[in-house]
Amino acid sequence: MVAKAFAALRRLGTADRGIPESVSFALAHRVRIEILAALHEGPATAKELAGIVCQPLSTVDYHIKELLKDGSIGVARTEKVGNLVLHFYCMVKLPFYSDEDVAKMTEGERQALAGLIVQASSAEIMASLWAGKLHSDPRVMLAWNRINLDEQGRADLADEQARSWAQLHEIEAKAANRLASNGEQGVTHVITSFGYERSRTSAPEPLAQEGRIPSLASGNYLAPSQAESKEAPSSRSE
């Protein structure tokens, strides 16, 4: 898996488009997004993907070729059926990289790693948004914010996110044990964790002036605590 993952990192953005442009292109069309999300479930042929995303085979073929060209997806294997050679396309499952592993990567490999994670998580959340999963689940949790940190605060944030990520996988392991005991199938949920420096530094807040509309809060969330309410959850400002 590690060798395949590194091959994918080196392949992304090696065609006409660079790494950021390849990720942007992959996420710029609904069919490509649906293909990416579908491939998270496992390798599939173009015909199988056409059935999943409910699009003509010719349309899916075009988007697959573009994703392949950029290195956004790969070929898991080929099978010969009669005179035909079937290609099974796949997303690369990335292993866990420690801080030491990332430090050994080239700048291009680190950018490609970030690009593949952004591509995968963005495809999943957009597909779920279209499917109505982000507002129909009363336990959904969606949050974002901009926070100003010093060097110590940045280190504390990274440590807290690492602890939280480990705890989430402990929850997954306990759920897996319960599902194995009761024979239930369970429901797949997506978890993400981002903490990064913003691309731009915001200008200072303007001084309050009479008659001016105050600026909006920088973060919003759908809180799981709203599950106790019978009303659909709504976005709130922090």
Q: Sum up the overall morphology in one term.
A: globular
Q: Can you say what the CATH homologous superfamily of the largest domain is?
A: Winged helix-like DNA-binding domain superfamily/Winged helix DNA-binding domain
What share of the residues does DSSP label as strand, in percent?
A: 5-15%
Average pLDDT number? 84
CATH architecture of the largest domain: Orthogonal Bundle
Q: Which spans of ≥5 residues are poorly predicted at pLDDT below 50? A: 211-218, 226-238
Please provide the count of β strands.
5
Computed over alpha carbons, the radius of gyration is 21 Å
Structural class call reads mainly alpha
Question: Would you write up a description of this structure?
Answer:
The structure is a single chain. Strand 1 (74-81) and strand 2 (84-90) form a beta hairpin. The strands form two sheets. The chain has a three-stranded antiparallel beta sheet with strand order 3-4-5, with no helix packed on it. The chain has a two-stranded antiparallel ribbon with strand order 1-2. The chain has 238 residues and is mostly helical. The protein folds into two domains: 1-136, Orthogonal Bundle (Arc Repressor Mutant, subunit A), CATH 1.10.10.10; 138-179 and 220-227, no CATH class. Helices cover 49% and strands 10% of the residues. The protein is built from nine helices and five strands, in the order αααααββαααβαββ.
